[in-house]
Amino acid sequence: MSLLIRLRSVWRTLSGSRARDADLDEELRSCVEMLVERRVAAGEAPEFARRAVLRDFGGLEQVKERVREVRMGRLIDETFRDVAYALRTLRRSPMFAGAALATIALGVAANTAIFSVGYALLIQPLPFRDADRLAVIWTDQSREGYPRAPLSGPELLDLDQRAALFDGFGAIWATTAAITGTPEPEQLRVGLVSADFFTVLGAEAALGRTFQPGDEPWGASTTILLSGAVWQRRYGSDPGIVGRRIEVNGQPMTVIGVMPPGFRPMMPPDSSVPDDLEAWLPFNRRFVEGPRGQRYLRVVGRMRTGVSVADARADVARVAGEISAAHAFYGTAGRQFDLQPFQADSTRDVRTALVVLAAGVAILLLMACVNVGSVLVARAAARSREFAVKAALGAGRARLVRQHLAESLTLGALGAGLGVGLGYAGLRVLLALTPPALSRMQLASVNVPVVAMCVGTVLVWMTLLSLAPAREAFRARAAAALQGDRRSTPGRAHRRLRSALTLAQVSLSVVLMVFALLLVRTVQRVQQMHPGFAADGVLSFRLALPASRYQAQESFNAFSRSLQESLATLPGAGAAAVISHAPYDHVPNWGGPYLAAEGADRATAPQADYRAVSPGAMELLGVALLEGRFFTESDDQRSAAVAIVDERLAARTWPGQSAIGRRIGVDPNVGGAPTAWTTIVGVVRHVRHRHPVEEVRPQVYFPSRQVVRNPSVYLVKTSGEAAALAGAVRERLRALDAALPVYDVRPLSAYVDDARALREFTATLASIFAAMALLLAAVGVYGLMAYSVTERTRELAIRVALGARRHEVVRLVVSGFSMTMVAGVAAGLAMATAGAAWLRHELYGVAPWDPIAVGLTVSVLAMVATAAGLLPTRRAMRADPVVALRAE
Amino acid sequence: MARELDLVRGTLALLILSTLELEPRHGVAIADRIEQVTRGAFRVGAGSLFPALHRLEQEGLIAGEWTLAGGRRTRTYRLTATGRRQLAAHRRDWQRAVQAVQLVLDGG
Question: Fewer CB within 10 A of the end CB, N or C, for chain A?
Answer without folding.
Answer: N
